[in-house]
Specification:
This protein is an alpha/beta fold. It has ten helices and eight strands. An eight-stranded parallel β-barrel has the order 1-2-3-4-5-6-7-8, surrounded by six helices. β4, α4 and β5 form a beta-alpha-beta unit. α4 packs across α6. The longest helix is centred in the first third of the chain and has 16 residues.
């Protein structure tokens, strides 16, 4: 199965279904984020799941442990293949999220958004490099007993070295010479896989292409 999960970040159900339908032969799953979920909720996720692709529900839950656990329990009927929480929520929150999740749902912790860099960290009072912050949060996620993390391709090799059996989600992936948009720490799909990525999250290079299926197929051919 392809390691590519196509990021369908739109509140438009018809567009979401069209993209998923057109790319389904060349991707391994679909990622649904806040835009889609706020517009369509659990019903919309179920409708997308009818297309037969695994669902990565990217909600980046971040609250006190009890609230996150209750939210994960509320999402359990959907049984997403992958669900995100924020690593910075702390060990207790991560432990409770995993305990509340369905047995077949991988809970992965977002370490540092790929739209951020060291200057953004400093602005929030966090010292050190992006690399240092990702490794700190990777260690926390590992200790909490969840399934893996979300990190950029720039850090995934070091994260995998520290956690050989972890599940590593790499967003911010862009084809060689492609536009990076609002991403700051990007790598090519092949480089991300070589560094240890378990799955690749790719959005605009596929979803904004004139032919999303051809774009997904072309990216897959580089893997």
């Amino acid at each position: 199965m392809s390691p590519i999960y196509v990021a369908i970040d739109t509140p438009d159900m018809a567009r979401a279904r069209t993209i998923a339908t057109r790319t389904r032969a060349h991707v391994g799953g679909i990622k649904l984020g806040l835009e889609f979920f706020c517009a369509h909720g659990q019903h919309g996720v179920r409708e997308m799941a009818e297309l037969g692709l695994p669902i990565f529900l990217d909600l980046k839950l971040h609250d006190i442990p009890n609230t996150v656990a209750k939210a994960v329990q509320a999402l359990s009927p959907i049984e997403p293949a992958i669900l995100t929480v924020h690593a910075s929520g702390g060990r207790a929150m991560l432990e409770d999220a995993k305990a509340a999740a369905p047995i077949h749902t991988k809970v992965v912790a977002v370490t540092m958004l790929t739209s951020l860099d060291a200057a953004d960290l400093a602005a929030t009072g966090v010292g050190g490099s992006a690399h240092d912050q990702v490794l700190r949060l990777t260690a926390l996620a590992h200790e909490a007993g969840i399934d893996g993390i979300v990190c950029s391709g720039a850090e995934v090799a070091a994260a995998k070295a520290a956690w050989p059996k972890g599940f590593f989600v790499v967003p911010g992936v862009r084809p060689a010479n492609g536009p990076v948009g609002d991403q700051k720490r990007v790598v090519t799909p092949r480089a991300a896989l070589d560094a240890g990525a378990s799955i690749l999250v790719i959005g605009r290079p596929i979803t904004q292409a004139d032919d999303p299926d051809a774009a997904a197929r072309a990216i897959g051919a580089t893997l």
